[in-house]
Amino acid sequence: MSFITAENIGHHYFTPSSVRTALKNVSFSIKEGEFVSLIGPSGCGKTTLLSILSGLLVPTDGEVKIDGQPPDLQRNMIGYMLQQDYLFPWKTIEENVLIGLKLNRQLDKDTKASALEFLQKIGLEGVEKQFPRHLSGGMRQRAALARTMAVNPKLLLLDEPFSALDYQTKLKLEDLVFEILKAYRKTAVLVTHDLGEAISMSDRVLLFATNPGRLHKVFEVPDHLRGLSPFEVRSEDAYSDLFRTIWKELETLEENK
């Protein structure tokens, strides 16, 4: 049974003088524990779709179900990680990590201990009492991941979470997030403009076309790549073959705008 189902999703943005169609007739399903990436030209509706999956937007047409219910009824089980870490600068790292638990009224001795233990697991031991300004960009994104994971979400939505980082830090965080999500058996949807990132982290890649935004083609990542870390995947021949195949499709979409 599918964990996420999207059926005939359409979404329009209205102004006093015009209507813009961001998404049209988008349908797909995602299994529990699967990692899926959304890629495509700018303006193809990827971030709009992520907002619909999160429950922040209600689609104009169609419906989304997460574990059998609409997203707005499942918000406590959805984690959202963005390009910016959005840590509160006046709060310590510990306070930032625990804020979701506080808001969801889940903060107690056990959940606090689990969240702080997770901080240690991702290489942030000893920074609990520091403020975000004392941390590097990569460390701040790790703290943002810890905050997201503290509430134990079943679904993680990732909106270009590594794009603001230098390349070496980005590769390290890709491996870390991949390892954490597989270890905790989380379902994840990643929006990215980085084709290499999409292939190296995912089980499937969903390619979107624009004008209007629609699902153009789905690419399965070969089984033997899925057991490797994203860094290891990038050195495989199958990775290069899939990269070239999707790249050609992207070029075709750009030419046919």
TrEMBL record:
* UniProt name for this protein: ABC transporter ATP-binding protein YtlC
> Keyword Transcription: yes or no?
no
A GO molecular function term, named singly, is: ATP binding
Sorted UniProt keywords: ATP-binding, Nucleotide-binding, Transport
Q: Which organism is it from?
A: Siminovitchia fordii
| PROSITE patterns per record | ABC_TRANSPORTER_1, ABC_TRANSPORTER_2
Which residues, if any, are the signal sequence?
A: none
Q: Which domain of life is it from?
A: Bacteria
Which InterPro entries does UniProt cross-reference here? Answer: AAA+_ATPase (IPR003593), ABC_transporter-like_ATP-bd (IPR003439), ABC_transporter-like_CS (IPR017871), ABC_transporter_ATP-bind (IPR050166), P-loop_NTPase (IPR027417)
Q: Sorted alphabetically, which CDD domains does this protein's record hold?
A: ABC_NrtD_SsuB_transporters (cd03293)
A Pfam family: ABC_tran
Instruction: Pinpoint the ABC transporter domain residues.
Output: 4-235
